[in-house]
Design brief:
Blueprint lengths: L13 E4 L10 H12 L3 H9 L3 H11 L11 H12 L3 E9 H11 L4 E5 L8 H11 L4 E5 L5 H4 L4 E5 L3 H10 L3 E4 L6 H7 L13 H5 L5 H28 L1 H5 L8 H4 L4 H21 L2 H19 L7 H21 L5 H28 L15 H23 L2 H6 L5 H21 L7 H7 L1 H19 L1
Parallel strand pairs: 1-2, 1-4, 2-3, 4-5, 5-6
Helix pairs in contact: 1-3, 2-3, 11-14, 11-15, 11-16, 14-15, 15-16, 16-17, 17-18, 17-20, 18-20, 20-22
Length: 482
């Protein structure tokens, strides 16, 4: 872990600390924007109207629209330790930030380590030259030390007795040294490639392997179909990752209230929220280019998928029952996308099976969240429309929808269509038996609190599940070939 230097002798000198990127491993402007957007999808239009009057009015508008719990924000513990040591040495401290004064005051009241708190007041944006002028007028030229993290702070360091930088780049360190004779550099954390990779959730890409299923179910396994399915997988993975990034930005508050999700890169402050904007747009653009190569039908399916996921992230995920139906639909859209990419028509049997099977998995996902909430003494799942008391009903949905999916599979085994694809249809009865076992076991694991939030990702790591899926594959191959 990077070491933070102890503050020098401070007597009654005042230490002025910036908020965004310094005390906080995040940015309150972006925090409040995404919080407001998550609460009301029309808020970006209000933000544009407020921005037309200036940065300070924008921050005031977002401060009033957002719902942010300052207790769960990703504070920099080493900066907090530095401030506390400064106070213990007899110095005074002040939080002076360009963020709206509402957030500044809430944070000051929570941390209790500042003698003064000042922020933008809705008319003046307390940043750069404006902050420098404010500090000189209040404390006097060269009568304060200033801790900051950005290019805008160069204007302040020119007037400070001592400059304390936090996580500056090498180039910015040089520039800061040129404007301040007394300077101290702190390195508390740096974004890593692993954090960026985790933000796009490559472990979730296994779901997108469903685009290969139309090709496999139709027994149309040739080079052209495989290549088209592979491109569909790549496109789906890129666009899905764009959605994951966007969803993480919208779900910052809920993720921080969750025992595991609070470790996600954006929620934990491991990478800047500002990076999320270009990541989401870049991934979406790359996925759309690949989708366009597969033709207008596949591109249309992907645009529909993105629109549905946006609706889910902004509103539908908070609607009881609607959310799990949408999740089941999003899984099924992967099958539709595979059919659109290869030109293979989807059978009614496959669509019916997928709808019920994925409804079961979506219900298991909610079941796992509710069990987790119950373990932590919460009455409802954070950011969802369910109460812990709903657990019995959600469990019934999970098990019954799964069994209906198996029933569809059993009816398919006796259909005329299956005889055209399989030489020995009796092996498919083994598939039905394994599915009954796997679905029942999955619901039981969720009931015991042993299920990952996403059952598909859990199944990909669970040895028994992998054995079940391998056996199903062998039985299907045996029925088709031998």
């Amino acid at each position: 872990m990077p070491m933070v230097a102890e503050p020098v002798s401070v007597m009654r000198e005042i230490l002025v600390v910036d908020l965004d990127g310094t005390l906080l491993k995040s940015d309150m402007l972006l925090e409040s924007f995404w919080s407001a957007f998550g609460q009301d999808w029309l808020s970006p239009f209000g933000s544009v109207a407020a921005l037309s009057r200036g940065k300070a009015p924008l921050k005031r508008y977002l401060a009033r629209s957002a719902q942010i719990n300052v207790k769960t924000l990703p504070y920099d513990s080493q900066v907090i330790s530095y401030v506390e040591a400064w106070r213990q040495a007899g110095g005074r401290t002040a939080l002076v930030t360009a963020s709206d004064e509402k957030f500044a005051q809430d944070i000051g009241d929570y941390l209790q380590i500042f003698d003064e708190v000042h922020g933008s007041d809705g008319s003046e944006n307390l940043k750069g030259q404006h902050k420098a002028r404010f500090l000189v007028e209040r404390y006097g030229q060269g009568n304060f030390s200033y801790m900051g993290d950005s290019k805008a702070d160069l204007a302040v360091w020119k007037h400070a007795k001592r400059a304390i930088t936090v996580n500056l780049s090498a180039d910015m360190r040089k520039r800061a040294t040129q404007v301040s004779a007394r300077i101290e550099h702190l390195v508390t954390h740096t974004p890593t490639a692993d954090a960026y990779l985790k933000a796009v959730r490559p472990n979730q890409w296994i779901k997108n392997a469903l685009v290969f299923l139309p090709m496999l179910a139709a027994h149309q396994i040739d080079g052209a179909s495989f290549f088209a399915s592979l491109l569909a997988f790549i496109s789906f993975s890129l666009i899905a990752s764009s959605v994951y990034v966007l969803n993480d930005l919208l779900d910052l508050e809920a993720d921080r209230a969750h025992p595991r999700k609070r470790q996600r890169p954006f929620a934990a402050g491991r990478i800047p929220i500002a990076s999320g904007t270009w990541m989401a747009s870049g991934l979406l653009g790359a996925g759309a280019v690949v989708a366009a190569f597969l033709g207008p039908l596949f591109l249309g399916v992907m645009l529909g998928y993105y629109a549905l996921t946006m609706g889910y992230s902004l509103y539908l995920k908070r609607r009881m029952i609607v959310d799990i139906c949408v999740l089941a639909g999003l899984y099924t859209m992967r099958l539709v996308a595979g059919g659109a990419a290869t030109g293979i028509p989807l059978s009614v049997w496959l669509l019916a099976f997928s709808m019920f099977f994925f409804l079961s998995l979506a219900a298991v996902k909610r079941q796992a969240e509710l069990v987790d909430s119950a373990k932590h003494g919460k009455l409802k799942a954070s950011g969802r429309g369910y109460h812990v008391s709903d657990l019995p009903i959600i469990s019934m949905i999970a098990i019954s929808a799964g069994y209906v999916a198996v029933l569809v599979m059993a009816l398919y085994v006796n259909s005329p269509e299956v005889a055209e694809l399989y030489k020995h249809t009796e092996t498919l009865w083994g598939v039905c038996a394994i599915l009954v076992y796997w679905i029942t076991r999955t619901v039981m694991l969720a009931h015991r609190g042993e299920m990952h939030d996403d059952p598909v990702v859990y199944a990909a790591k669970d040895k028994i599940s992998l054995v079940c899926f391998l056996t199903i594959f062998v039985l299907a191959i045996a029925g088709a070939i031998f």
